[in-house]
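[Meeting: bench + compute handoff]

Bench side (C.D.) handed over the final construct sequence. Compute side (W.E.) agreed to return the predicted structure before the next meeting so the bench team could plan truncations. Sequence as handed over:
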Amino acid sequence: QTVPEELQNGGGFGYVVAFRPLGTVSWMQTVVASPDAARYVFRNESLPPFSPYEVKVGVYNNKGEGSFSPVTVVYSAEEEPTRAPTTVLARSLSASDIEVSWAPPWESQHKGRIQGYEVRCWRHDEKEENAKRIRTVGNQTSTKVSNLRGNALYHLAVRAYNTAGTGPSSAAVNVTTKKPRESCQTSPCQVFVEIYQAQPFYFIFFVRFFPVLYRWNRQSSTSVIETNKTSVELSLPFDEDYIIEIKPFSDGGDGSSSEQIRIPKISNAYARGSGSSTSSACTLSALSTIMISLTARSSL
């Protein structure tokens, strides 16, 4: 960073750049006469890629030299990696996800840092140049490729990269995503709730109607259906848990509520009575008997 003009303290201000290969003793120096200069380029065609140098920058003006900055280590430009990753493996996690892993290139001395890896993934009926590309950072040697088509053959290849570019690609590996899970029709299941009174039978004549409260097990909001009969039919999604409770209502107000009844996800194991299930329709019937106590609050 350049020195502000108010801190240059005189005319003829400039910079002294000193540098040497890391591990050597003698400094090479050059003068940059412009006070606005913010860079210096040292050119040497024989300089190996990614060579470390120690560098410090000082200042001077017409009165003499000032102090130097702390020494820092910089590198000459690097080249892209020269070897491909090895031991590339891929496995299908689901109909849309693949996990791929690899080992770093077999190379004892790199002509640059490996800053990460690029995974290319393309479907068998696609061109490789249109492949999906995912980049990892650092020494991470596995990643997940998502949003793929189910039951499809994919090719995957991995290559290392750095600031100079990407290196050679590994050999491609093949993997087929899993088949998508067969989906059932979303027609609701019919749940029949029958209500039996546990008190003497004449109580039933004082009950005007039965509010049946039900809600999705993971929601707080409650739906209500009212009936003046001792049975009610509810249409509920087949793939969710539900909570049901019933309370009688008379001229005297609400009666005591029944215990909460949990209706689990309906499957073949829960299908009873005359209902049936098929793999194509997934329309099930379940019979749920709820015993409640009816309490009339009017004077008898």
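W.E. noted at the follow-up: The longest strand covers residues 52-61. C.D. will use this when planning the next construct.
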